[in-house]
Amino acid sequence: MRFSARLFTFASLALASAAFTACSDDKDIVTPAVPKYEVPVTYNFANVNYSGQQARLAMLGELDTYIKTANTGAVLDAQKLQNMYANTNNPFAATELNTAGKQLRDKTLSTVQAEYDGYLKDVATASLSGKLPAINGTAGILTSTDGTKKYLVNAKGVELGQLIQKGLMGAVFYYQTVDIYLSEEKIGNAVDNKTVKPGEGTAMEHHWDEAFGYFGAPVDFPTNVTGLKYWANYSNQVNPALKSNKTMMDALLKGRAAISNNDMAGKTEAAATLRTSWETLVASSAIHELNAAKGVVADQALKSHYLSEARGFVMGLRYKKDRKISDATYTQVMAKLGDNFYATTGTDINDALNLLSSAYGLDAIKGSI
């Protein structure tokens, strides 16, 4: 009996101790309070600076404008093109760009820098034939059926100017945003968010602002859609079907507000939304151009123009490490587009479009993008 009583006593004490410990542990668990703050409706935060991104957007603008002079017969200077890409030897008409200390080349995904060097060299070579009509196998000028549009293409009917512009939108602006500025290294919780640099904010705030800069939108987008550049412009073009304007801007605003109010969970959620939505925007931009191309298959000039844009956008999809599209599907899309646009058929275009829309869950709206 004494043994049983003692056993009961020890058991009772153990249960009481466990209960006390459990209660004590529950009290020790403190759920961090979610900071309360308002997310503004415009990107008017304190200490914002994304001048470097604005400079690179302007550099691509000048590069694109120069390349397009070849559409009317100008011969492009290969060295000037390389100078504009790397910002050497004062190549820009806007003198502030020459002294900005910024360039496009060193912000291009390193594994494709040489590829774009090659495209720039190739477009200069093609421009030597800018006084001649283009035919399959010979570079020159393709003219639309109605005579209003002229495009310099290479021997395979590719408008390299469009491939370069759309490609660099991906290899610089998109890549730098989704794989660099929205990365753990740039906005992770270990990044300084206490030391405020006047005019620039904390390191974490500044990195987020640089991501906003690469979008190419005014601070009051999408209420204001004037002067949109690159990705913001394409977001607005596909917005009727994709509703991308609000999604993108809301995430950009939420993330910056979250950082400024030390809401790390809110920041992480906004970054995830932005990375996913931007990738969908890239795919939708390609679909947008493929929709245009399939309506003008009989007009080689227009077909080549839209296919060159689409190919540049599709190339951009590979610049995100955790991309949604599989390598196999990407390869299939590129194969359908082909590298000779004289041979690309309406069926090929539809097949490429369908592969993309299926990969990104856009089948329900693909015809409206």
Relative helix content: 55-70%
Summarize model confidence as the mean pLDDT.
93
Kindly provide the radius of gyration, computed on alpha-carbon positions and rounded to a whole number of angstroms.
Answer: 27 Å
Q: What composes the largest sheet?
A: 2 strands, antiparallel
Number of helices: 14
How far do the termini sit from each other? Answer: 84 Å
Side by side, the strands of the main sheet go 1-2
Catalogue the unreliable spans: 1-27
- Sheet-strand content, in percent, reads under 5%
Order of helices and strands: HHHHHEEHHHHHHHHH
| Global structural class | mainly alpha
Q: Please tally the β strands and state the result.
A: 2
The number of domains: 1
- Quaternary: single chain
Apparent shape = globular
Short note summarizing the structure:
The protein has about 375 residues and is mostly helical. It contains 14 helices and 2 strands; from the N terminus they run αααααββααααααααα. It has helices at about 1-30, 50-70, 80-85, 95-100, 115-125, 160-180, 185, 205-215, 230-240, 245-260, 265-295, 300-315, 325-335, 345-360, and strands at about 140-145, 150-155.
Overview of this structure, please?
The protein is mostly helical. It has one domain. 58% of the residues lie in helices and 2% in strands. It has helices at 2-28, 51-68, 78-86, 95-98, 113-127, 160-181, 184-187, 203-215, 231-242, 244-260, 264-294, 300-317, 327-337, 346-359; strands spanning 140-143, 150-153. A two-stranded antiparallel sheet has the order 1-2. Residues 1-27 have low confidence and may be disordered.
